[in-house]
Write a structure and sequence with these properties.
With 185 residues, the chain is α/β, with parallel strands linked by helices. It has three helices and seven strands, in the order αββββαβββα.
Length: 185
C-alpha cells in the first residue's frame, strides 16, 4: 500500500513537470539598426551564406578555454531567422540595390567566443566577393575579421553582434565605394 501511494505520488509529480508551461525563447534580430541613408551602388543582388550546419536560428557560442572546437547554443535565446538571412536583409536595406553586380558574403564565423567563464568576444569572420551580373568569375574579394568584447551572457552576445553587423555593413560599403565598378554597369 505504501509503495503504491509512493508510486502514485511520483507519477503525479512527473505529470506536473510535463504540464508546466515552457517559456518561449527570446527572439533577436537587426531590424531596428538605424540606416541613415541607403547607399546607391551598382549592386543588383546581395547574398549572405553560411555553412549549412550553421544555418540555424540558435545563438551560438564557443568555450575556447574548455573545448574550442565545440559549438553550444543559448537555450532561451534565438535569432529571428538564421544569422545569414538577418544580415542579408540588413545589407539590402543598407545598399539600395539597383542593377549591376552581385555581392556574396560568406560568414565563416558568427559566434560568441569565451576565453574564460567571465570574458568573451563576439567574432565575425567573412569572405566578401563581388561577382559580375552574370557568370561566376570573382571580380574582387575581401576578407573581413572583426570582434568586439561582449558581456559573458546571451544579452551581451546579442548587443555585440548588433554592433558588429552595423560595422560589417559600413566596412562592406566602404570597400565597394573604393572599387572601380565599371564591370557592374
Amino acid at each position: 500500500m505504501r509503495r503504491a501511494v509512493s508510486c502514485a505520488l511520483a507519477a503525479l509529480l512527473l505529470a506536473g513537470c510535463m504540464l508546466a508551461p515552457v517559456e518561449a525563447p527570446r527572439r533577436h534580430d537587426f531590424a531596428d539598426l538605424v540606416i541613415t541613408q541607403p547607399i546607391a551602388l551598382p549592386i543588383a543582388a546581395i547574398t549572405v551564406t553560411m555553412d549549412p550546419y550553421r544555418q540555424q536560428d540558435a545563438l551560438a557560442y564557443r568555450l575556447l578555454y574548455a573545448s574550442p572546437t565545440h559549438f553550444a547554443h543559448y537555450a532561451g535565446h534565438r535569432w529571428l531567422a538564421p544569422p545569414n538571412k538577418l544580415i542579408e536583409r540588413y545589407l539590402e536595406r543598407r545598399l539600395a540595390a539597383t542593377q549591376g553586380c552581385r555581392l556574396v558574403l560568406h560568414l565563416e564565423e558568427f559566434a560568441q567566443h569565451f576565453t574564460s567563464p567571465t570574458e568573451s568576444r563576439w567574432v565575425v569572420l567573412a569572405d566578401a566577393r563581388l561577382l559580375p551580373p552574370r557568370g561566376k568569375k570573382t571580380l574582387m574579394r575581401r576578407s573581413v575579421a572583426m570582434s568586439l568584447a561582449a558581456e559573458p551572457n546571451a544579452q551581451g552576445a546579442v548587443a555585440s553582434a548588433r554592433v558588429l553587423v552595423a560595422q560589417l555593413g559600413e566596412e562592406v560599403v566602404a570597400w565597394l565605394m573604393q572599387q572601380k565598378l565599371e564591370d557592374c554597369a
